[in-house]
Amino acid sequence: GAGVSQSPRYKVAKRGQDVALRCDPISGHVSLFWYQQALGQGPEFLTYFQNEAQLDKSGLPSDRFFAERPEGSVSTLKIQRTQQEDSAVYLCASSPSRSFNTEAFFGQGTRLTVV
Amino acid sequence: GIQVEQSPPDLILQEGANSTLRCNFSDSVNNLQWFHQNPWGQLINLFYIPSGTKQNGRLSATTVATERYSLLYISSSQTTDSGVYFCAVEGLDSSYKLIFGSGTRLLVRP
Question: Which of B97, B100, B104, B105 to mutate to probe the A interface, most A CBs <10 Å?
Fold first, then answer.
């Protein structure tokens, strides 16, 4: 596709429910990033993939958060047993290089609301 | 870790006015970028500017790395400039982990 695509755009989950958020990066992009953006704040780094390898997951807030990119393309961010504090916009970005430079692009995000 | 502070937090302008947004950062950085987040949530890269000055139409940016700040200038503002402007930096120990400020929320009134 022309850009980074994320689905669903909106997700309402009951507390305790598991959710899966999908990111389709720009074709051929080596690097993929997940960020979490709380209301009124800037995005915060969650995790980084280079192809299928998850090189940094230091930003994942708890062991309920899990991300994968098994074939080096599409990525899924999974949140188990959702809590209210997980409510946020989850942004995905991809880049053709190993760094976050001018060629990196963000998707429109998935807004997760936990009720 | 690196702290990124943006000012002002909120700004209201009349269409046609000029403005300056500021970003201060607490340590040396490899990279600094300015983003615009539109009302639909899309983050668009405006400038990749670790140092120096760049211009793109009505927007320009200057980063003074030695003094750890960057400025974003918006001239002849338009209603479509409304949204949130973020400054983000990469620390010396990472080439991929952006650290964002909390943004400047801009509203341009017709």
Answer: B97
> Is A113 at the interface with chain B, CB within 8 A?
no
Distance between CA atoms of residues B89 and B25, nearest Å: 8
CB contact under 8 A, A106 and B42: yes
Please state the rounded mean pLDDT for residues B10-27: 97
Q: Which tokens hold the place of B39? A: 């009302």
Work out the average pLDDT over B32-53.
Answer: 93
Task: State whether residue A89 sits within 8 Å of chain B by CB.
Answer: yes
The pLDDT value recorded for residue A102 is 67
Q: Is B80 exposed, middle or buried (0-12, 13-18, 19+ CB in 10 A)?
A: exposed
Which value, to the nearest 10 degrees, does the dihedral of the CA atoms of residues B77, B82, B84, B88 take? -40
The tokens describing B109, both together, are 């009134």
Q: For residue A2, is pLDDT > 90? A: no
d(CA A100, CA A97): 8
Read off the pLDDT of residues A4-16 as tens digits, 9 standing for 90 and up.
999 999 999 999 9
- Residue where the block lists tokens 């400025």: B71
Burial of B108 (0-12, 13-18, 19+ CB in 10 A): buried
